[in-house]
Specification:
This protein is mainly α. 87% of the residues lie in helices and 0% in strands. It has a domain of 34 residues. The protein is built from two helices and no strands.
Length: 54
């Protein structure tokens, strides 16, 4: 799982550096929306498991 995350992170960096500066703001907004749309559901499943083990 960690290798997959590093792979996706690396691809994100490569794509981010290839975008022209004029178009970066809309791409950043879309990236934040996608990040929040995926991060919140993942954390809502992970946090109860984390708190349960302590």
């Amino acid at each position: 799982m960690t290798l997959l995350k590093f792979c996706l992170f690396s691809i994100g960096i490569l794509v981010g550096t290839s975008i022209p500066s004029k178009k970066k703001k809309p791409v950043n907004i879309i990236a934040v929306i996608v990040f929040l749309a995926t991060y919140i559901p993942l954390m809502s499943k992970f946090v109860p498991i984390l708190l349960e083990k302590e």
